[in-house]
Design a protein that fits this description.
- The protein is about 30% helix and about 30% strand.
- It is an alpha+beta fold.
- The chain has 2 domains: about 10-80, Arc Repressor Mutant, subunit A (Orthogonal Bundle); about 95-225, Chorismate lyase (3-Layer(aba) Sandwich), CATH 3.40.1410.
- A 6-stranded antiparallel sheet has the order 3-4-5-8-7-6. The chain has a two-stranded antiparallel sheet with strand order 1-2.
- It is globular, with a radius of gyration of 18 Å.
- The N and C termini lie far apart (about 40 Å).
- The relative contact order is 0.13.
Length: about 240
């Protein structure tokens, strides 16, 4: 089922992101407080906190506990690659997002997955495999493993209604992320789920996120090369 409306935290995030893009807050300037944003948008403090956490994860703001939120300098923003939630990307284009859940279970981690999540081989992890569609066409195959200690309720969510990225932003304390990007062929399973030939070129992003104490998630995002373009914009 498609997600048709913008969530409250997204309205807050959009307001702040647009303000940053237009230079409303100079680099290093103090931005609106959580209390001001709560009053302006008539939302909860948790909703505002989620919007600010996402902006911080994207490298657009700095948050200092007990002081406030500050706009980051332009050189910091320009050096940050932002990989947005696929649902938000699709909605921003005015298109319809749909998620097909092919796998959502608890399983024993392989040695490779366990190493990436700093777990013992065979430790239990949460595993989801979801295909995201844009206007009915498969755009991304998302294969994700989650450390249960970092997000115990992960599998309780309906991933046709909310994306894993949204769940993890709302329920974990994101501290940093590491990723690599490559052009390669899909696996046999990925080709079948994306409805593309096995030799079709794909853009593959592998990303890990971390809390202060442990890895949160490992995800492999596969996009058909002729359906997806990674892009951004920077104004000095």
């Amino acid at each position: 089922m498609a997600i048709a409306t913008q969530a409250p935290y997204q309205r807050v995030k959009h307001f702040l992101k647009q303000g940053l893009a237009r230079g409303r807050w100079a680099p290093g300037a103090l931005m609106p407080s959580e209390a001001e944003l709560v009053a302006r948008f008539a939302v909860s403090r948790m909703t505002v906190n989620r919007a600010l956490k996402e902006l911080q994860a994207e490298g657009l703001v700095e948050r200092v506990q007990g002081v406030g939120t500050f706009a980051r300098s332009l050189h910091a923003v320009s050096s940050t690659l932002t990989i947005a939630d696929v649902h938000e990307e699709i909605l921003a284009r005015g298109h319809t997002h749909e998620a097909r859940v092919h796998l959502a279970r608890e399983e024993e981690a392989s040695a490779a997955v366990a190493a990436k999540l700093a777990l013992a081989p065979g430790a239990l992890v949460y595993h989801t495999r979801i295909v995201h569609l844009e206007n009915g066409v498969p755009l991304q195959c998302e294969d994700r493993w989650v450390n249960p200690a970092e997000c115990p309720a992960y599998l309780q969510h309906d991933f046709t209604q909310v994306t894993p990225t949204q769940v993890l932003f709302a329920n974990t304390q994101l501290w940093r992320a590491a990723y690599h990007i490559e052009a390669t062929r899909p696996s046999r399973t990925e080709a079948r789920l994306l409805e593309i030939p096995g030799d079709a070129p794909c853009l593959v992003v592998v990303r890990r996120t971390f809390s202060r104490s442990a890895p949160i998630t490992l995800v492999r995002l596969v996009h058909p090369g002729d359906r997806y373009m990674l892009q951004g914009e920077f104004t000095p």
